[in-house]
Amino acid sequence: MQSHYNAVMKALTIRGVPDDLYRCIAARAQRNRRSLQQEALALLERVRAFELDDSLARAQAIRGRLAGRQLGDTVREVREERER
Question: Is residue 75 part of a domain?
Fold first, then answer.
């Protein structure tokens, strides 16, 4: 398996970026102490994390891990704590 750093990285050029979107990403980059390229890549990574198939698979995995466990009633427990 190749490490992340040994893999050949692809380049992506985006043309026609609206001025307001560019300013928004540039401001985020500055707040996050990243270059514009690093910030754009971070945003694309976040989009990938929210892909529907991945989200459904993660939800199914969580449900599988919780299957058969006796889970409490959180709302009831919070109410009981408040009444103490």
Answer: no
